[in-house]
Amino acid sequence: MCVEIIVKILCDFFFFYENQPVFTVVYLTLSLFFCLSPSPCSVNELYVDDPDKDSGGKIDVSLNISLPNLHCDLVGLDIQDEMGRHEVGHIDNSMKIPLNQGEGCRFEGEFTVNKVPGNFHVSTHGATAQPQSPDMTHTIHKLAFGEKLQVQKVQGAFNALGGANRLSSNPLASHDYILKIVPTVYEDLSGRRRFSYQYTVANKEYVAYSHTGRIIPAIWFRYDLSPITVKYTERRQPLYRFITTICAIVGGTFTVAGIIDSCIFTASEAWKKIQIGKMS
After folding, report:
1. Is the pLDDT of residue 142 over 90?
2. Is the distance from CB of 123 to CB of 107 less than 8 angstroms?
3. Domain coordinates of the chain in residue numbers?
4. Strands 164-165, 139-146: pairing kind
5. Chief subcellular site (predicted)?
6. What is the pLDDT of residues 44-70, one digit of tens each?
7. Is 213 exposed, middle or buried (0-12, 13-18, 19+ CB in 10 A)?
């Protein structure tokens, strides 16, 4: 349809520039490019609901974190929530990669949490022997919830903590990351829905003490779910907007081509006059 509209409108153009094929080719190429380049847009909505009722009340979590000064034998992941879950030293679907000749560790893990407030934390709680001064300085490479959305048109905080660097912090400090998780739905043109989660974050670090002395530090991720769901719906442009865009593209390109041709013609005539003046 787009090509037919352009060809019909260009009849006058071809007639006017019948002796200048370069302009014709350039104009047609630009018109086709701008006509075919528009892509479907995404419309944002907010509503209160649980969009992913088929998940069984679970959220997938992906965590990738480096602790350059803590041995892998000491690093562990603990999970707690308000449903009574209390898991120390979670190891399923996780991997520990030694860093700095074994002095540090990179922890990569995938696990699920219940859709209730809770926390998961990286600590030495599951270690056989507790170190006297565990160093909790770290870098977070990735913390993401739900399915990964690889959609360029959707900009969101799906990995808000990615790149967070706490290497200059007090080695004995605990770190609290307070997460507000926002359910997110993306629906493409075919009606297929994908479920993910964005999150906002606030953080603090502190050295904790009790009446018995200093408390073993840890890296805490305390989360709660927002009742608001963000939905991105992919839609095509309405017909009237498409037609308006085509008219604007064709008319604008025609005008620009006319201006360029006029400038070239004027310059050519001026050059001819200069040449004639030199010959005379």
Report:
1. yes
2. no
3. 2-38+237-279, 45-235
4. antiparallel
5. endoplasmic reticulum
6. 666 677 666 666 789 999 999 999 999
7. exposed
